[in-house]
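Weekly structure sync, notes
Attendees: PL (lead), two postdocs, one rotation student
Agenda item 3: pending single-chain targets
PL asked that the sequence for the first pending target be pasted directly into the notes so everyone works from the same version. It is reproduced below exactly as submitted, 193 residues in total.
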Amino acid sequence: MSQLSDTVDALKRNIDGISQLSDIVDALKRDMGSERNRTAAPMKCVGETVSSQQCPDDWRRHQRSCYLLVDTPETWRDAREDCHQLQADLASLTTADEQTYMGTQVVGGTYWFGLSDIMAEGDWQWVDGTDFDSAVTNWAQHEPNNLKKGEDCAQIWHNGRWNDQTCTNKHAYICEKRTGKALALLVSQLVEA
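Predicted structure, written out during the meeting:
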């Protein structure tokens, strides 16, 4: 009986916490509503400005991302760290459109991008956390094959096809910087609230 009583008490505390959070959210919505009425045009403008933001010098814009092709060979991990230094990450080519576009950009080289199965063999994951969709890939024939029992990082070849490769090999790499995607989404959610 005491276990049931403890469970009921814990549930009451959770409900109180949720109620407090709900009150905070309601207050924020009221504040945002009055702020939105006062500044609706500027907020819309912010969304447009962010989504049309220019890419830094030497970066290539495609849709809502900027890409930098770096020809200096690095290991996959070092390449990722270099991208982080640029406030970016290795490119996550999660859509067929991005894959097609990047295939036209890497002519003449082999580049690391942000896909690996380092955590578990065969469990491919994008560095940006996007769910991996095996139906939207561009693997070369018979790839990924983990040929040397340690090919855990993805590279894109000069023809746009993908290959799994040993992460400690050194290759050129592609950094991606999302331009305003998150902020534009946040602004649109605030405007709709």
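Discussion points:
- Residues 24-29, 31-51, 182-191 have pLDDT under 50 and may be disordered.
- The two ends are 44 Å apart (CA to CA).
Action: rotation student to compare against the earlier draft before next sync.
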